[in-house]
Amino acid sequence: MKILVVGAGAVGGYFGGRLLQAGHDITFLVREQRAQELATRGLVIVSPRGDVTLPQPPTVRADTLNTPFDLILLSCKAYDLASCIASIRPAVGPATVIVPLLNGLQHLAVLDAEFGPARVFGGLCQISSTLNAQRDIVQLHPGQAMVVGARDAAGQATAEAFVQLLRSVDVDARASTQVLQDMWEKWVFITALAAPTTLMRTAVGPILQAPGGADFIQALVAECLAVAAAHGHAPGPGFASRLALLNDRDSALTASMLRDMQAGQRIEADAIIGDMVAHAEQAGIAVPLLKLAYTNAKAYEATRAAAA
């Protein structure tokens, strides 16, 4: 399977790097600066699962991309989706499939409009990784998982083949026949985590220890669950174990959106919290706390833009 990984950052660079390490046919679509970094230092992964340096990994820039790939792994941020779509067009052939790992669901409609739903799979991943000052990929915890599923039954064999590749490099991968349900459950969780931690500017534990904090988080969770249920995707029984992470008074858990705010970076306000609010409005559900969290996130974006 000939795979194009869009970007070589903390997520795409990690999964693509592990596949490349095992000898699979991987090419990274990167900008000029990242191409130079990879040519000079190699793709460096620092991980509890073992460090590796991959010298001069195969790369291509958007202006030189001119051949189709079997699968495109798309792990960009929501605010970079439009530019990524323009970059990958030359790599999309008659049999190409796209596996997006973006948060939320908003990206599916955008990709469907460009490439057609039959070739746009559903996907999600769970990994804690970042780029350090040297631009090395640092995996913070050993967990690494991915769920992939075709939204058209004809594509499921390709999804299963990709999952087998991931499993061969010790990724806890699963081919799903209900990938939209899986994506909804992840979206509910990350929204229920992002909303309170960005509003209060702290981790779950200190919020729970504050007066009214537990009720506040529970009310936000209830809003998210109501939206999912109204759209036919109420989380299954196993979801309760994930929600338990939001009830730990000693937890240092925060959303990546909060970490991006603290670093002065761009955030995915519209794709995560904003789209959950939009789905609530479509269903006629009142979500006052989610709306407050969305206002807070958009105020951050406005302040950041004014300072730029």
UniProtKB/TrEMBL annotation:
It comes from the Bacteria. This is 2-dehydropantoate 2-reductase. It catalyses: (R)-pantoate + NADP(+) = 2-dehydropantoate + NADPH + H(+). Keywords: NADP, Oxidoreductase, Pantothenate biosynthesis. Catalyzes the NADPH-dependent reduction of ketopantoate into pantoic acid. Its EC number is 1.1.1.169. Residues 3-150 form the Ketopantoate reductase N-terminal domain. Pathway: Cofactor biosynthesis; (R)-pantothenate biosynthesis; (R)-pantoate from 3-methyl-2-oxobutanoate: step 2/2. Residues 179-301 form the Ketopantoate reductase C-terminal domain. GO terms for molecular function: 2-dehydropantoate 2-reductase activity. Belongs to the ketopantoate reductase family. GO terms for biological process: pantothenate biosynthetic process. GO terms for cellular component: cytoplasm. Transmembrane segments: none annotated. InterPro entries: 6-PGluconate_DH-like_C_sf, 6PGD_dom2, ApbA, KPA_reductase, KPR-Related, KPR_N, NAD(P)-bd_dom_sf. SUPFAM superfamilies: 6-phosphogluconate dehydrogenase C-terminal domain-like (SSF48179), NAD(P)-binding Rossmann-fold domains (SSF51735).
